[in-house]
Amino acid sequence: MASIDGMKVLLAGESWFTSMTHAKGFADFTTAHYEEGQAPLQHALEQAGCQFDFLPNHRAVEEFPWTAEDLGVYDVVIFSDLPADTLLLHPKTFSGGERTPNRLNAVAEFVQAGGGFLMVGGYMSFSGIEAKAGYHNTCIPELLPVDLLPYDDRVETPEGVTPEPALEHPILEGIEGPWPWFLGYNRTVAKSGAQVLVEAGNDPFLAIHDVGSGRAGAFASDCSPHWGSPDFLDWPFYGQMWSQLVGWLAGR
Question: In the chain, what are the domains?
Answer without folding.
Answer: 31-249 (3.40.50.880)
